[in-house]
Write a structure and sequence with these properties.
Number of strands: 14
GO molecular function: DNA binding; DNA-binding transcription factor activity; pyridoxal phosphate binding; transaminase activity
Protein name: Aminotransferase class I/II-fold pyridoxal phosphate-dependent enzyme
Distance between the termini: 40 Å
Helix content: 40-55%
Strand order of the largest sheet: 3-10-9-8-7-4-5-6
Mean pLDDT: 87
Family: In the C-terminal section; belongs to the class-I pyridoxal-phosphate-dependent aminotransferase family.
CATH superfamily of the largest domain: Type I PLP-dependent aspartate aminotransferase-like (Major domain)
CATH topology of the largest domain: Aspartate Aminotransferase, domain 2
Number of helices: 17
Low-confidence stretches: 1-10, 94-109, 133-138
Pfam families: Aminotran_1_2 (PF00155), GntR (PF00392)
Keywords: Aminotransferase, DNA-binding, Pyridoxal phosphate, Transcription, Transcription regulation, Transferase
Number of domains: 3
Radius of gyration: 24 Å
Strand content: 5-15%
């Protein structure tokens, strides 16, 4: 019986030359990705080291490392200790893209593609949604951020509330409903916001959507026409940055420090911006709060220029050292300019796909019409169940219970890191949230990230949240893991980084 063929050990491939205006990092990434999807780099193929590849193609090593890192994080490559970097056996988008790439290679005589009718298509092709792969991964590998503990959710209670809604006398809930959201849920959210976030708002000013991303998309479409300027936090939530880029507006990256968004710098860079995306209650990903002085400065800027502020109420409920601070929208001067966005995906479970916007009165009609046109309405059955869940007090009890659980896990994470990560990773005080941005004390962020992946540890490099360079860091999540699992994973991180 003939011996089974081993995967080819690819050294170098002809990758062509960069197109004018394309960065070397983007060229290298796209060339390697195309070779993988086109079959020129089959599953298991070993790639050269970043040093050897950089020397061969006359690139900076950092360019090669950045291209490898993006392919690693998107699931095209895998790094294993002792065996180098190889092409993954299962590709994240093989069924979608491989056919196109292979046709392009096998049939070069075919007519060139017709340019897309909309620039949206080209802008979409230029990005890969940053959390798409990790959000559908089976299991929970520590320490990937932005995830709660679905095991602690009261599933039996939720099932009971579903059954109550599906009684024969209530089947009208299965029909189409108000595009603005079920009145019962809007009233429940209004009551919750008054108590937990300090926001006094009539229920009819709340618009129910499927996600905060959908709310930001509506704001970009309706409030930032053409190439209007939009402030974006730097570092900031990558999903928001990618949506801003795809929308076609001009993104203005405004730096963030320990006191939140540097409003004065935003005014200097783009005083006439139409919209500002901010996470004032817990900055994503640094965890800082927007200081009172900067809150006032931000509201004054919006009032003076007729601009709007999109307040993403990111992780505000899970605050461990004191009560949650009030939302920016709670301030008297915020009523006309601040659009508050919140989601239940992290408070309950991701697939609930229910979120909300609190809108100024003069925007309510246009936003409701746009939402109705684009998506008709959010899931009515889930809205009805959630309304009961809130009205009957289950939501408040669940949040309070999870706040205690996450606080205990944050403490366990910090204590274990203090014991095992000396000289490797510096963990700041964990004040709130599901994750923490840590300072990486080893020299090479990309290499450290690759070693952690090979050791079964998921994380997000801080560079993925940044436009301007910052000190090396990792965003690590602790919320879904029991204390013993946290300690085991912390030890695994230490072993991987000490190699």
């Amino acid at each position: 019986m003939p011996a089974e063929k081993s995967p080819p050990q690819v050294i170098f491939l002809p990758l062509g030359t960069p197109e004018p205006g394309v960065s070397l990092q983007r060229w290298l990434y796209e060339a390697l990705r195309g070779a993988i999807l086109g079959g020129r780099l089959p599953a298991g193929s070993k790639l050269p080291s970043t040093r050897a590849l950089a020397e061969h193609y006359k690139l900076a090593r950092g360019t090669a490392q950045a291209a490898y890192q993006q392919l690693l994080s998107e699931g095209y490559l895998e790094a294993q200790t002792g065996s180098g970097t190889r092409v993954c056996a299962v590709l994240p988008d093989a069924t979608l893209n491989a056919g196109y790439v292979r046709r392009k290679i096998v049939a070069p005589q075919e007519a060139p593609r017709t340019p897309p009718a909309s620039p949206w298509v080209e802008r979409l092709e230029a990005i890969t949604p940053i959390f798409a792969r990790h959000s559908v991964m089976p299991g929970l590998r520590p320490f990937f951020p932005h995830r709660g503990d679905i095991q602690a959710f009261p599933v039996d209670l939720w099932r009971k509330l579903h059954i109550q809604q599906l009684r024969a006398s209530r089947l009208s809930i299965l029909l189409d409903s108000d595009p603005g959201g079920l009145p019962a849920l809007r009233e429940a959210i209004a009551g919750y916001l008054a108590i937990a976030r300090g926001v006094q708002v009539p229920a009819e000013r709340i618009l129910i959507l499927s996600s905060v991303q959908q709310g930001l998309d509506l704001c970009l479409r309706l409030l930032a026409p053409g190439n209007a300027q939009v402030w974006m936090e730097d570092p900031g939530y990558p999903g928001a940055r990618q949506l801003i880029d795809v929308s076609g507006v001009t993104r203005v990256d405004v730096p963030v420090d320990a006191y939140g968004l540097q409003v004065e710098e935003g005014v200097r860079l783009a005083p006439d911006a139409r919209l500002a995306y901010v996470t004032p209650s817990r900055q994503a990903p640094l965890g800082s709060e927007l200081s009172p002085a900067r809150r006032l400065a931000l509201l004054q800027w919006a009032a003076q220029h007729g601009s709007y502020i999109f307040e993403d109420d990111y992780d505000s409920e899970y605050r461990f050292i004191a009560k949650p601070i009030p939302a920016l929208r709670s301030m008297p001067a915020a009523e006309q300019s601040v659009i508050l966005a919140g989601t239940f995906s992290k408070l309950l479970f991701p697939s609930i796909r229910l979120a909300y916007l609190v809108l100024p009165a003069h925007l309510l009609e246009s936003f409701t019409r746009a939402a109705a046109l684009m998506s008709r309405h959010a899931n009515s059955l889930s809205q009805a169940v959630l309304a009961d869940f809130i009205h009957e007090g289950h939501f408040d009890r669940h949040v309070r219970r999870m706040r205690k659980i996450y606080a205990a896990r944050a403490e366990a994470f910090a204590e274990s890191a203090q014991r095992h990560w000396q000289g490797l990773i510096d963990v700041p005080e964990i004040r709130a949230g599901l994750d923490i941005t840590c300072n990486l004390q080893v020299n090479d962020e990309q290499a450290a990230f690759a070693r952690l992946q090979a050791a079964g540890i998921d994380s997000m490099p801080l560079a993925r949240y940044c436009v301007l360079p910052r000190e090396a860091g990792l965003v690590l999540g602790f919320a879904p893991y029991a204390e013993r699992a946290i300690d085991d994973a912390v030890r695994a991180v230490a072993r991987a980084l000490k190699r």
